[in-house]
Amino acid sequence: MTAYLIDNLQYANWSPRIFAQMREGGVDAVHVTIAYHESFREMVLQLERWNRWFEAHPDLIFKGTTAADVALARETGRTAIFFGFQNPSPIEDDIGLIEICHQLGVRFMQLTYNNQSLLATGCYEDDDTGLTRFGKQAVAEMNRVGLVVDMSHSADRSTLEAIDHSSRPIAITHANPAWWHPARRNKSDEVLKALTARGGMLGFSVYPHHLKGGGACTLESFCEMIAEAASRYGARHLGIGTDLCQDQPDSVVEWMRVGRWSKTIDYGEGSADNAGFPPMPDWFEDNRHFGNIRNGLAATGLDAGEVDGIMGNNWHRFYAENFGPAEKGTP
After folding, report:
1. DSSP notation for 115-136
2. Which DSSP category does 233 fall into?
3. What is the pLDDT of residues 296-306, one digit of tens each?
4. Which residues lie below 8 Å from residue 55, measured CB to CB, with a gap of 6+?
5. What is the average pLDDT across 45-60?
6. How is domain 90-241+248-322 classified at the CATH fold level?
7. 197 with 164: CB under 8 angstroms?
């Protein structure tokens, strides 16, 4: 069986240098964020930008829309790029745009990014009211067309309701367990049990705010956490979603955290006194370093099949089962 390498979340400052590093690291597929707070039209501009990169660098990257594209990437020595939103802002208040976005190649959409949205509650709100009326209909429509529900930045009640309401498995593409490091964005044991019991996927993040010890987190600690998660939830439900923000200027943090919704700075994770990107751990600074994680996982005693699954095969299976339309006769 092919051992794929998939990173299910990055928001790098994209460049030919990074595309080349993906190839040096043998990365078969990356799920990239193309919207934080963008409107539909602004999101389309990001698609145009990616089309230019695909045209300019066809030897390195191409647009991915199905699991078969991961295999094609491996066969041709390239990296398949899959699109996702970290906020539902591109669908605005129009449920019909969900299908349009899927037709444009988008495969993941978070129902919230930290704040309350039209669909659900973000993890930084004081009051989590769960899925809204629009949110429940949006989840059903996402299930129908094959747009994966992502609850990485959502509050617990909203996440549990999304898991329960969704007829298909959902994903938390980039977060870690709160029992390892109690960051506000990391997920409770209750949420992770519910997620994995329904066939959902968790992608482990190396973003320092999500790590025990921040940028000083050791590879051993990170991999032992993954091994413990495998024992609690089953290794087949686990993958990598690094949340790599390589080469981004510190000013981008302001867009990520506040977009246009605030006149003041509310960074959430971190503070106004330390508002830039934190230093990455020395064992993972770019796409060439996935081998460190693979070796670290092997050292924990996980077997080769489990390590292959976590490094990419589990995401590949999830893509195959969830990127297409629901079978006829199902909700």
Report:
1. S--SS--BTT-S------HHHH
2. H
3. 999 999 999 99
4. none
5. 98
6. TIM Barrel (3.20.20)
7. no
